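Known limitations

Structure tokens in this collection are predictions and should be treated as such. Users comparing against experimental data should check residue numbering before alignment. To illustrate the layout, the record for DUF6348 family protein is reproduced below. The input appears on top and the generated tokens appear beneath it.
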Amino acid sequence: MKVIQRSVVREMACLGLEFQVEGSVVRGPGTTAVAVREHGGHGEGHVDLGYVLRLGEGEGPVVWDCTAGLGRTEEEQLQNAVRMWRTTTASAVVELLERRGVHGEHFGPGAAGGVAGWHAIQGPACVFGFRSGPLGDWVAEHQLLPAVADAVLPYLTDPAVNGVKFFFGGREGDEVAEVRVNGEPVAAASAALRAMPWPRGERLAWVRSFVLLAADPEELAGIERLVTARRARWGAPGTALLRRWVRQQQQR
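Generated tokens:
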């Protein structure tokens, strides 16, 4: 738990935000926080992280996401898992709160790249593995959400905010393609993702991407002001975070 919490503090600082450990959660600006819970049944290096938007409100939205990392030790695995989460999921949430176009792209309801009835925020994608260049180039040029929208819409059960995670890759003949909505796998959406013509190579390479769907971003305006005020104190993030997608060459 301590390794995960310290990693959350460090990774959120990369987004220009100050978080600090307070008991079982990592508190952020205003009413934001990150909660941690174990992810059962998947071995070491897996963890569930929940980005809490209104801490203290039992019905307040929480964006949950399971994440995993590679590494030689369990500590390295957990650190890389949190880094992967920050790059994709946390970036999308921060972009939802700030709406500055720094940490993700916005697509209005029904716009190309979006989905009907929801405001979509696409965070950066993590492309990692061996010889991942072709896969990364393909991801940078294609939108994933429209291809699975019909399968995803029935599972958007939260009236305020829903999270859609994409994980796919591997190598030809040994592929994985999974779409999760609010942490739960959606078989039809996963099948649609598998059917897309992303490059299959001879070496292992994967993509992790996260899209946040908000019914009304303006409802979070109070949180946004608190985050922006804290950011003014701590400064803006580095220009490296402006990239559309990020390649990460991890453990060999």
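For this record: The first strand starts at residue 20 and ends at 22. The first helix runs from residue 2 to 14. Please report discrepancies through the issue tracker.
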